[in-house]
Every structure is written in C-alpha cells, then in structure tokens.
Predict the structure.
Amino acid sequence: MRGGLQRWKRGAGCGGVGRAIDYAVKGTCDAHLHLSTGSDALERYSSATDASVTRFVVMDGAIAADELSAGALRVWLTGHDPVTGEKRGSQRLSADADLLLDATLNHPKSYSIAALLHPELASEFESLQNHLRDQILTTWLNELNARRGHGGLIREDITRIEVVELDHRRSRALDPHAHRHLWLNVKVLGADGK
C-alpha cells in the first residue's frame, strides 16, 4: 500500500457522495484529482457495467463480505446502514467533514502483466491481494481508534469497521495494472457501543 490514506470530503451540498458514487460505478472522478473527462477511457477504466461493490465488515476478528448496489453504496456513504437505513452516530454535514478514507493496494505493473501471461500466476496474484487486503482490514480494526468529543480529544478503541473494495484492472492510462481501492467508512463502532 503506497501513499497512505486519502481523505474524501463531504463537499458542498454533499457533492462528495456523488463523486464517490461516480468513481465507484462510473469512473468519472478521483478523491483528490480533477481529471480530464475522456468518457470512453473512463468507462473502460471503471467497468461501469458492474454496478455493485464488495463491502467487508470486520468485527470480533472475523471478516464478512456482501455486495452493495450503487443505491446501497450511497446510503452507506451518507453514514447509514445500507440494509436498514438506520443512521449511524451524529451526522457532520459541513463540506469539510470526512466521508471516507481511501487506501490503494498497489503492486508493480509487471505483476499484472505476468498474471495476464500465466493463468497460474494470475490465481496466485489474486490470492496475494486477498491475503494482503484481509491483513490490512484486521490491522485497521486493531490499531486505529475513533475520536469523539470536542476537537476529537477522546480516543476510543474500535470494535467494528466497514470497508468497500473497488477492484480495478487497469491504470488511468488503460495499461494492465491490477490494484484495489479500500474505502474505510468514517462511521465505526467504538468499544462503548456508539
């Protein structure tokens, strides 16, 4: 994982939610870059025909996975449970409020090319990425903390996190480059049950 975590902000009029949905299912933006809109290239980049993403719920040392449609992803991004619609915690509606944290699980492009040429390597490469993702998710659960109170002065252990994975097969230049974005929702469950 290179570059740490990029912050996606809520934006004016919750524009960050729309940008995140576009990026996840249409490929029309990035968290921190304003890209030119070559619509054909961006559509191929994002695999826009697949309108769902995988959500991982990490709790009690176990990782569970399900699929979120674009509509459920929007609900998830706005700080609600994507199944029940229940609000999670207090809502920060300012344009500067964090929406999610984006980490990219990245490898040398030569790995992607080797996987294209050798199917047995492709299977091993996928297994490696899955293993690394799972290790990252459990490390986040164990090492990160929630911040509460005025100015975030109170730190609380985390007992549940939710992460959406975007599985990309190409770079923006459209060359083979398998990489994954791990979107950590800023709404987490603290040890206090909140």
